[in-house]
Amino acid sequence: MAHMWFGDLVTMKWWDDLWLNESFAEWACYWCEAEATEYTDARTGFANARKQTGYRADQLPSTHPIAADNVDLHAVEVNFDMITYAKGASVLKQLVAWVGPDAFVEGIRQYFKDHAFGNTEFSDLLVALEKASGRELSSWAEEWLQTAGVNTLAPVFELDADGSYSSFSVAQTAHADWPTLRRHRLGIGLYDEVDGRLVRRDYLEVDVEGASTPVAELVGRTQPALLLLNDEDHAYAKIRLDERSLATVIAGLSKLDDSLARALVWGAARGHDPRRRDGHHRLGPPRAGQHRVRDRRPGRHPDPDDGRDRHRPLQRPRAARGAQGRVGARDPSADA
Ligand SMILES: [Zn+2]
């Protein structure tokens, strides 16, 4: 149904803006599900499944900017992937938080009105969103749509003798291959242990920019049992937990009742597990028999396929072999 608007009513002019159709449809389906149906926790599914898929695709060598330079149809086929769908929808969720949900809806209404039954480029949408929100968006779009990679956000703070923050900032880093630091609209949740449950005491939203963003609003507040950057999941970034928060969730993730917060904490905590390779490891000490020893000595990292198949050109499958060629199909009398 989302494609009736994002794709059918207004269609992108060229494949560079494919995400105007696909990311929007993806984002809109979760948004509608959460806002207009009984499935109000739909965003937990988005965080657990879709967003993780985007983070993963964005950390592979095959990643590319969302608004790809699709010079021809061959390039389109290469770039039609989970960056377009899953990362695109996640970045859109961040854009909604960045301009504010009301301004976003007002902007896309105008965009549909102005371009109904026509073709657009991303700049057409930006114009509508800038007008509705009053926020300058072209440099935002450059950071988010024309560069690849995912940033990591971590809390950096000092504590008073009484256990409250005497300083607090959000540190942002990027992988060396994709060094862009971006602007983020970031939710921060403070959870305390109350009667055996983790209960949110405070929630605030801040704009994060550059390598370090001081958060004055947190100075003077008591350090919570769990501090969750990217609470509410507006940001597209890898999140780090401080030591106390990590200890809190290792001791009892199940004390968190909110399913979205639990998904976010779980995702962040996995990033701290030094044994993590494939996301299936559990937090805490391994159970008996769970250890698999792998050869990780330097210089002994054999290529998983020894390069055997990697460069072989695609070939048409061979014609099915006749029964003669198959093991076990020999004439049994021959052995007699
Ligand atoms: Zn689609």
What can you tell me about this protein's structure?
By secondary structure, the protein is of the alpha/beta class. It has two domains: 2-145, Neutral Protease Domain 2 (Neutral Protease, domain 2, Orthogonal Bundle); 152-270, Immunoglobulin-like (Sandwich). The chain is built from nine helices and nine strands. It has helices at 18-36, 42-58, 73-79, 82-99, 101-115, 122-133, 138-145, 243-252, 259-270; strands at 10-12, 118-120, 152-159, 165-173, 184-194, 197-208, 212-214, 226-229, 238-239. The strands form three sheets. Strands 7-4-3-9 form a four-stranded mixed sheet. Strands 6-5-8 form a three-stranded antiparallel sheet. Strands 1-2 form a two-stranded parallel sheet. β3 and β4 (165-173) form a beta hairpin. The longest helix has 19 residues, at 18-36. It is globular, with a radius of gyration of 25 Å. Residues 3, 22, 25 line the site of zinc ion.
